[in-house]
Design goal:
The structure is a single chain. The protein has a two-stranded antiparallel sheet with strand order 1-2. The protein is mainly α. Helix content is 48%, strand content 6%.
């Protein structure tokens, strides 16, 4: 658990640039870019807004729009 927390803090520190947030692609985006599978355990527990975003990926020719970048 300590290693997980340390990794999270390192990830957070790397995301900060002069005290401001900087976008970093996560595991899902990296998997999509590389054509890899991405397994989400307990996806039914995600918030409705997250599920709404993921549903677009499951459609034929699905896509994901990242407006947050």
């Amino acid at each position: 658990e300590l290693r997980t927390k340390k990794a999270s803090l390192v990830h957070l520190a790397e995301s900060l640039h002069n005290g401001a947030f900087r976008w970093r692609d996560g595991m899902l985006i990296k998997a999509m870019e590389n054509g890899h599978w991405f397994l989400i355990d307990h996806v039914n527990l995600c918030s409705p807004s997250v599920l709404d975003r993921l549903n677009g990926l499951l459609e034929p020719g699905g896509s994901l729009i990242l407006s947050e970048r």
